[in-house]
Amino acid sequence: MAHLVIAEIVTTMFVISDNPLIVQDAGPGIKSLIGPADRALFLQGIGDVLAELAEGRTFVAMALGLDNFSDLIVARGEATAEIVLREVVLRLRERLSSVHLIVWTSGDLFVLACELADSPRGLEALQVSVISCFDEPFLAANTPVYLSASLGVAFATGARDDPQELLGSAEVARSEARRAGGRRIIVFDRPARSNIADRFEMTQALHRAVEQHELSLDYQPIVHLASMATVGLEALLRWNPRGRGQVRPDTFIPLAEDSGLIVPIGSWVLGEVVEQWSDWVPANRGLAPPWVTVNVSVAQLDVGFAGLADDLLAAQSALPGRLSVEITESRLTIDPEGARATLNWLRRLGVKVILDDFGTGYSSLLSLCSFPVDALKIDRSFVEHLLESDRDQAIVGTIIDLAHTLGILVIAEGVESAAQLECLAGLSCDQAQGFYISPPAPLDEVRAAYETASPLGQRSMGRD
Ligand code: C2E
Ligand code: CA
Ligand code: CA
User: Fold this and answer.
1) Residues 84-125 pLDDT 10s
2) 292/316 Cα distance (integer angstroms)
3) Long-range contacts for 167-170 (Cβ within 8 Å, ≥24 apart)?
4) Residue 397 CB burial class (10 angstroms; 0-12, 13-18, ≥19)
5) Pocket of ligand 1, candidates 223, 236, 274, 446: which has the most ligand atoms within 8 Å of its Cβ, to mutate?
6) How far apart are CA 265 and CA 273, in angstroms?
7) Stretch (H or E) spanning 239
8) Is 25's pLDDT higher than 50?
9) Residues 87, 97: contact at Cβ < 8 Å?
10) Taking a C-beta distance cutoff of 8 angstroms, is the pair 292, 319 a contact?
């Protein structure tokens, strides 16, 4: 019975010639298909199929977007883009035997309703068929056009599904697929939806964080391994939104980077460091305050280059010769020429440059030879397995030797035990930081420890 009804819908959608959902005959008039009416028809179509779904059959809604469609319009014009769209519809229709509905809803977006083959690999087979539609180019005016697609998939569970919600879920998954870089398929699941909602609300709250004084800095000491004296402090951002607990930087920094908020937030960080350092006149022994290092996202360089220059200049005049910035190495390898210019610019300002998370990128040793840097931080993942893994010990030893040959200082991060510290000292590492030496703490605490040189500055290597 369900079979018949589905067949009837397919007929309605694809065969009656003046129905706007005809795909087989899609001609130049296909543009007239764009519009909310199509979506409404699609919803009605899905609703009808769902109502007749027999037990044991699985049905999915898919939202499909073309990743580089706006580039195609810019490069080849709207007329070509329209032809390509029609070709896409025809190919989907031709290659997907289980498709019941294909509707072009707007711009570069299509929605499809398909029945899955009754096999554990039914979804995989369908996904492969859809994506393989884009393996070959589409022809427009005898010129091949290569496209890729992002696909969001949502499972229908039965007659009680709300078609609107089903389609909405597929669309949410599709925008996730595009956000993740395109050319991929994401299957919707409910927790993912609540993650998206959380992320949205968190970004909203982050907009207000600077004005509402919810940001603060902790500092983690960096010690000179031979003397165990504190020589530097890394500024680490903390966010305590009102009405909820602290949010981890690993959670909110990526949001700040995606939304561009990292630019005003990064300015706040530098301003705060300058203020705290200009207040700091060590009370005893003619000590100078330690140098301070600040994390800078590549997004800050991309979006707020001029503003960052001003901030750094201001910071540098308050902290002459004692400011460094940490940039994640893996991001620099994306645009090596631009990166080299940026690093030179920073050094001309008198700011030292540290490559952060060193060893996690593709071409670590190569980038060490080709980028102008003052220091590198060996990523925590190497330090973690230093004692059990001869391989990691060899890698760390090689990094240290090469860096020294090039006149680059080496700092190990994530040191959690005396044994790791000893091992690093044995490999001639220069400096280190980590929970064993001291966790990050508010400046007052770190400062008191620094000025009395205990316990931070004088911790012996033998203690565990
Ligand atoms: P990161 O730059 O690699 O900073 C080191 C992280 O490791 C810090 O996490 C620190 O608390 C943690 N850590 C230090 N010692 C140990 C240890 O012995 N064991 C372990 N397991 N962890 C240790 P945190 O503060 O949560 O910061 C996470 C990341 O957020 C930072 O990684 C950095 O990439 C980013 N971040 C923090 N503050 C800023 C900022 O002001 N601007 C930007 N752009 N990014 C920041
Ligand atoms: Ca860092
Ligand atoms: Ca790091």
Assistant:
1) 888 888 888 788 777 777 777 777 888 888 877 777 778 888
2) 11
3) 167/39, 167/42, 167/43, 167/46, 167/61, 167/63, 167/111, 169/61, 169/193, 170/60, 170/61, 170/62, 170/63, 170/111
4) middle
5) 236
6) 12
7) strand 230-239
8) no
9) no
10) yes
Q: For ligand 1, atom 8, which residue shows the shortest CA distance? A: 236
Percent of the chain's residues with pLDDT above 70: 82
**How close is the Cα of 315 to the center of ligand 3, in Å?**
22
pTM, two decimal places: 0.74
Residue type for position 423: C
How many residues are there in the chain? 464
Determine the residue of 217, 253, 376, 385 to mutate for testing ligand 1's pocket, defined as the one with the most ligand atoms within 8 A of the Cβ atom: 253
> Which contacts of 337-344 are long-range, i.e. CB under 8 A and separated by 24 or more positions?
339/371, 340/370, 340/371, 340/372, 342/301, 343/371, 343/372, 343/373, 344/372
pLDDT digits (tens, 9 = 90+) for 60-86: 888 999 988 889 999 998 888 888 888
DSSP-assigned states of every residue in 383-445: HHTTTT-HHHHHHHHHHHHHHHHTT-EEEE----SHHHHHHHHHTT--EE-BTTTB--EEHHH
- DSSP secondary structure code for residue 288 in this structure: P
Residue with tokens 């996904």: 127
- CA dist 276 and 145 (Å) reads 57
Rounded to an integer, what distance in angstroms lies between the CA atom of residue 112 and that of residue 130? Answer: 10
**Closest ligand by atom to 273 CA:** 1
Return the ligand number nearest the Cα of 249: 1
CA nearest ligand 1 atom 21, residue: 414
Closest CA to 110 of 137, 140, 147: 147
Taking the C-alpha atoms of residue 357 and residue 412, their distance in angstroms, rounded to an integer, is 10
Mean pLDDT to the nearest integer, 421-441: 97
Beta bridge pairs of residue 50: none
Q: What is the number of other CB atoms lying within 10 angstroms of the CB of residue 96?
A: 17
**Cα gap 247→201, rounded to integer Å:** 13
Helix (H), strand (E), coil (C) string for 17-36: CCCCCCCCCCCHHHHHHCCH
Please list every protein residue whose CB sits less than 6 Å from any atom of ligand 1: 220, 236-237, 248-250, 253, 262, 266, 269, 295-297, 326, 356-357, 380, 413-416, 433-435, 440
